[in-house]
Amino acid sequence: MRQTELFTKTRKEAPSDEVAKNAQLLIRAGFVHKEMAGVYAYLPLGLRTLHKIVQIIREEMNAIGGQEVAMTTLQDAELWKQTDRWSDEKVDNWFKTSLQNGTEVGLSITHEEPMTRMMAQYISSYRDLPKYPYQFQNKFRNEARAKSGVMRGREFLMKDLYDFSRTEEEHNSFYTAARDAYIKIFDRLGIGEKTYITFASGGTFSEFSEEFQTLSEAGEDTIYVDEKKRIALNKEVYNEGVISKLGLDKESLVEKRAIESGNIFHLGTKFSEPLGLTYSDENGERKPVYMGSYGIGPSRLLGTIVELFADEKGMVWPEAVAPYRVHLVGLNLDDEETRDWADALYNNLVNAGVEVLYDDRVEARAGEKFADSDLIGIPHRIVASKKGKDAGTYEVVERATGEIRNLTEEELFADFTS
Amino acid sequence: MRQTELFTKTRKEAPSDEVAKNAQLLIRAGFVHKEMAGVYAYLPLGLRTLHKIVQIIREEMNAIGGQEVAMTTLQDAELWKQTDRWSDEKVDNWFKTSLQNGTEVGLSITHEEPMTRMMAQYISSYRDLPKYPYQFQNKFRNEARAKSGVMRGREFLMKDLYDFSRTEEEHNSFYTAARDAYIKIFDRLGIGEKTYITFASGGTFSEFSEEFQTLSEAGEDTIYVDEKKRIALNKEVYNEGVISKLGLDKESLVEKRAIESGNIFHLGTKFSEPLGLTYSDENGERKPVYMGSYGIGPSRLLGTIVELFADEKGMVWPEAVAPYRVHLVGLNLDDEETRDWADALYNNLVNAGVEVLYDDRVEARAGEKFADSDLIGIPHRIVASKKGKDAGTYEVVERATGEIRNLTEEELFADFTS
Q1: Do B295 and B331 reside in the same domain of the chain?
Q2: Cβ within 8 Å of A, B 127-166
């Protein structure tokens, strides 16, 4: 993509009411647009990044047997009354609206109820189990405050996967597979090292739940980390009893701020019982289906990645999710020969299948271009200048490390198309 | 995908309150799930089909310079007051809700206003124009009745593209390109022949607007078609004056029912003026941006395709959007050799990159399998049976024509992997 064609531009300032670093940088770089507090539109660079995160998650969900669906935003109140989650006293962040005939409907805060009801149409026998539907779908939560940028929106994208299993044992076996898939996802996104499986308070069906917490000063959670054992405890379960139960040592636990970047739950029969999701087993006996749920928010991950890697100059994208792999910055483009030379490299890279953003602006000064490039945070910057043309080389700068190399076109292609 | 792994199953009956043929068949075949009237979830087969429609549209939008974004569902009331579209007297199908602090917000009925306001941040000079953002995003319309299945939902997916141009001339030139792109989309979807550019009533900035109308008895519109000239008139402009103005002949116009499958609009400065979207031209003069909008609904197209091609046995998908290209139906799978033989073909086809749904159910009878296969409507059925194994051939049946061929594995691969 040529930058002169891209409709977004960088900005010096984010909106004055935007306090989160992730949103400030994403807005300044033209990745997102703030529609209102906690509600962000995704612009071309941001949407490319979001789609890459989604695709990584999709691949890992498919790999463990997930089947993709898309549930709805509008929610039938009657369904949520059956699990006692409709009343504002029970769930205080519903957005509610109504049909023309006055029937109340809600906007999806989450999807356990509709997913369970939908699956009930397809599950009757043990032969129909286990099954693993998942989706990428917007959730709507009427947060009183929305100060964390894209990490906690009033409208945000969520991947939610569910397991519908015959027994606790069958559920547990999938739970382990999903847990491993989450570890792979964080690794592929480049935040595996900073992400800890963290014990938190459980529900009816388990003593603890497990969260994935990613270390960051911008996080809303406090956790206690054992770095050697790569395990952490959420503050809510941080006490002598739990520490000793888990075989940990208080001395090795360090307090950290962290972002909850994923969570996995044993749901047991919490939803299947009230919603009547049962199956007949090998002996013809009706039994409630055993469930689990597995959440991860692509838009929150996008914000988390910004928070984790950004430096004083701007964002720093890991290769796997960067909107483009290469930022080709053309200098001295008012010189026709230099422009032809830079254009040719752009075309050759694109034809070789390399994703390139090309700063082909003629008027912008070099300093402005470098500042924009640092802000946008594409992993590899290739500078094509008159001086480089005369020497027959391009300057390649790594965004993350600042490492600089001068490469010929041949060396460049060996590097970027291998 | 093995059918024993797919969580959906076919059903004999659709919900009794579902009157539209498209929704009846899509529900019976397990493509969609009805959450409430006019609100449908997409299940694995339906979502695959929807994604294919989306991808065709995306490719054609990118080909004319479109840049993909994703605007939001939650809408700022203040913005819509500026164009006088917030009041329920002006727009009677809003879903409205409110933030915790009482501020009213709406659910996106359409996106001209937020798109215009967002673009205003990036447009200041003639150098910033023209630009073409587009998106796939849910729209919410509080329809009093919802009787047309996925063709007119209360929540539905829409592709909307906008042009932001310097002048009417520049806008018109893009309008022509977008119009041509739409023709390509309908052709690629397999409904080009049945789709007519149709003159309808215009707005402030043009005498007529143009709609794409696809002939179908299930349509809500009445149009008058000149089949030779491949032009039509919407009933609302069907009068002597217009007919002669367009150089048509009343005798050649035939009344037909049709589905509005796309529309393209000259918006002029209808949104840019009230929302203050201006640019400074080459002489430094401020001018309002000239706009157009281009809508097409992937979920409505999906319903339209069902309506157009379905027969008494079920759905008939065109190759380009079918959830799978091949439906491999295994018979006599209780015979181990036959099962191994069918399994081997499945694996070989998948490894060759062919999209295959494999009916690997052992218990189901042949008649049941064929009825399900007809209902689901995948273009090519390959039957692997004991009889076929003994003869060394597979029966290939075309869903659209019923044509039957007996092919060896070699002939089959020549056909499906070339």
Answers
A1: no
A2: 128, 131, 133, 138, 140, 142-144, 154-155
Measured between CA atoms, the residue of chain B closest to residue A97 is: B97
For the stretch B111-127, pLDDT in tens is 999 999 999 999 999 99
Q: Evaluate whether residue B140 is within a structural domain.
A: yes
Angle at B145 between CA B140 and CA B147, to 5 degrees: 100
Domain that holds residue A344: 326-416
- The b/e string for B184-195 (b: 16+ C-beta within 10 A; e otherwise) is bbbebbbbeebb
Whether residue A133 is found in the same domain as residue A282: yes
pLDDT greater than 90 at residue B15: no
CATH code of the domain covering residue B389: 3.40.50.800
Instruction: Indicate the residue type of A147.
Output: K
Q: Which pLDDT tens digit goes with each residue over A395-410?
A: 999 999 999 999 999 9
B6 neighbourhood in chain A, CB within 8 Å = 67
Instruction: List pLDDT tens digits, range B27-50.
Output: 999 999 999 999 999 999 999 999
**Is residue A389 a part of any domain in this protein?**
yes
Query: With an 8 Å Cβ cutoff, is A10 touching chain B?
Result: no
CB-CB neighbors (< 8 A) of B100 in chain A? 142-144
Considering the domain architecture, whether residues A66 and A140 belong to the same structural domain is answered as yes
A148 domain residue, yes or no? yes
Report d(CA B17, CA B140) in Å as an integer: 21
CB A28 within 8 A of CB A20: no
The 10s digit of each residue's pLDDT in A209-253 is 999 999 999 999 999 999 999 999 999 999 999 999 999 999 999
Interfacial A residues in 71-110 facing B (CB < 8 Å): 71-76, 95-97, 99-101, 105, 107
Would you say residue A203 has pLDDT above 90?
A: no
User: A35 and B72: CB-CB below 8 Å?
Assistant: yes
- The DSSP code for A111 is -
User: In B182-253, where do the E strands start and end?
Assistant: 195-201, 208-215, 221-226, 231-234
Residue B100's closest chain A neighbor by CA? A144
User: Residues A296, A372: one domain?
Assistant: no
